[in-house]
Write a structure and sequence with these properties.
The protein is mainly beta. The protein has 2 helices and 12 strands, in the order βββββββββββααβ.
Length: 132
């Protein structure tokens, strides 16, 4: 997995709820696992901006509810710290549902997305309305 230029604060832990900011039909999702993270025995994984995660849809269309998908975190309240010292924080936690290659399943992304997500997943930034 390619690294990002900013230091992401891993503020999302196991079973954290966040909104789904694309138009796939999911409204609220819950974090299950984080891909590519090694932890100590019995330690819960945590995730930050730009991490690929496994989610379960909690609220949304009936055909999507109670199903697992992959997603990428695009916004967190904890935010991230850029190399020039600037901190970027958001008012909510949000994710975008993707396939196993990192391509978004939806056709539009609501809200802002930090440019650091585009270093790993350029297609997500291409669909975003606002890039911070």
């Amino acid at each position: 997995m390619k690294g990002i230029s900013a230091e992401s604060i891993r503020g999302m832990s196991y079973m954290a709820r966040m909104e789904c900011t694309d138009n796939t039909g999911a409204k609220e999702v819950s974090l299950i696992t984080v891909f590519g993270q090694k932890t100590r025995k019995k330690q819960q994984p945590s995730a930050g901006i730009g991490d690929m995660i496994n989610i379960v849809v909690k609220k949304g269309k009936p055909e999507m509810r109670k199903k697992m998908f992959r997603a990428v975190i695009v916004r967190t309240k904890a935010g991230l710290r850029r190399a020039n010292g600037m901190r970027v924080k958001f008012d909510n936690n949000a994710a975008v549902i993707v396939d196993k290659d990192g391509l978004p399943k939806g056709t539009e992304i609501k809200g802002s997305v930090p440019k650091e997500v585009g270093e790993r997943y350029p297609k997500i930034v291409g669909l975003a309305a606002v890039i911070v």
